[in-house]
Design brief:
By secondary structure, the protein is of the alpha/beta class. The protein has two domains: 13-110 and 219-296, Rossmann fold (3-Layer(aba) Sandwich); 136-216, Putative methyltransferase TM0872, insert domain (DNA polymerase, domain 1, Orthogonal Bundle), CATH 1.10.150.170. It contains 13 helices and seven strands. The protein has a seven-stranded mixed beta sheet, sandwiched between helices. Helix 8 crosses helix 9 and helix 11 (219-229) packs parallel to helix 12 (247-262). The structure holds S-adenosylmethionine.
Length: 305
């Protein structure tokens, strides 16, 4: 697969700039710098008086983003951090309340396809899946150490894998012979467990790989922490924008925004999630599942769009 030059195309870029109300002089936090697609465009709008605070859990993407933002017109403060640590990052950046917070969840295209991360069943590589090398648990550890029931529950709960029991059983049978250390080996075990094409026509390994990746990187837990913490770091009128790529994540965002709205902590700005238009979907097929939700911290509520 040929990657775009930055290894990732930012999704819903104009929508993010508009709905986050990015203008000169503001302070914006990008919780998921990635390849700095959103961050670069935000920085350009913030101008000389603005401040961009950015973080990424992956030091490789952080380094790339840093280089890409080197000529940004605004002040830029970047951190190798998990967005679950937003509070500490803002402390280290010596910033109190901010005008906008963006999280573009999941992984960048380069991470999904670069064999170094061990995230793809399409490329044989060590079964790792950590986006932050400081994370202790790898996917190989889950696959080779967890009990059969725990693996089945993980696949079902994180990725709605309907063949979870069959796959978990086969994994445990196979690792009794020898440990499963590579993505290719795991993909083969899954193909044998399912024994043919799936009714939903996706690759048989898709859901298992997704569930493992989510567990290794604690994606659900980190998102829930971010959703709990972010609103209190916004100025009145400040906005929180979250882009998610699967229904479970979107559900968490929707519920968290609704609860915060009921507490009068946030006002929902996007009554329905904003999704990419046809042109973007065609240009960037990965954008197809993207959903953007925005909420605003405010004393007074504004009309929903
Ligand atoms: C979809 S990409 C972001 C792409 C970016 N918006 C761009 O336009 O280039 C998601 C990024 O978030 C990072 N990430 C994922 N979970 C994270 C977390 N809990 N804390 C910080 N960064 C995280 C990933 O390493 C990846 O670089």
């Amino acid at each position: 697969m040929e990657l775009p030059t930055s290894g990732h195309d930012p999704v819903l870029l104009q929508e993010v700039l508009d709905l986050l109300e990015v203008i000169e002089g503001k302070t914006i936090v990008d919780c998921t710098l990635g390849r700095a697609g959103h961050a670069g465009a935000i920085a350009a709008k913030l101008g000389r008086e603005g401040l961009l605070i950015g973080m990424d859990a992956d030091p490789r993407n952080l380094e790339y983003a840093q280089a890409r933002l080197a000529d940004a017109p605004c002040e830029v403060r970047l951190f190798h951090a998990n967005f679950a640590q937003l509070e500490h990052v803002l402390g280290d950046a010596q910033v109190g309340l901010v005008d906008g917070i963006l999280a573009d969840l999941g992984l960048s295209t380069n991470q999904l396809f670069d064999s170094e991360y061990g995230l793809s069943f399409a490329t044989d590589a060590p079964l790792d899946m950590r986006i932050d090398p400081q994370t202790e648990m790898t996917a190989a550890e889950i696959v080779n150490r967890w009990g059969e029931q725990k693996i089945a529950d993980l696949l079902f709960q994180k990725a709605d894998e309907r063949f979870s029991r069959r796959i978990a059983k086969k994994i445990v049978e196979r690792r009794r012979v020898s440990p499963i250390r590579r993505t290719g080996e795991l993909a083969q075990v899954i193909y044998e467990a399912i024994g043919g094409p799936r009714p939903d026509r996706i690759d048989p390994a898709t859901r298992t790989f997704m569930a493992l990746r989510m567990a290794v990187n604690q994606e659900t837990e980190n998102l829930q922490t971010l959703l709990a913490v972010a609103p209190r770091h916004l100025k009145a009128g400040g906005r929180l924008a979250i882009i998610s790529f699967h229904s479970t994540e979107d559900r968490f965002v929707k519920l968290a925004f609704r609860e915060a709205d009921q507490r009068d902590e946030l006002a929902i700005v996007t009554k329905k999630p904003v999704v990419p238009g046809e042109i973007e979907q065609e240009r960037n097929p990965r954008s197809r599942s993207a959903k953007l939700r925005v909420a605003q911290r405010s004393a007074e509520k504004r009309g929903a769009v």
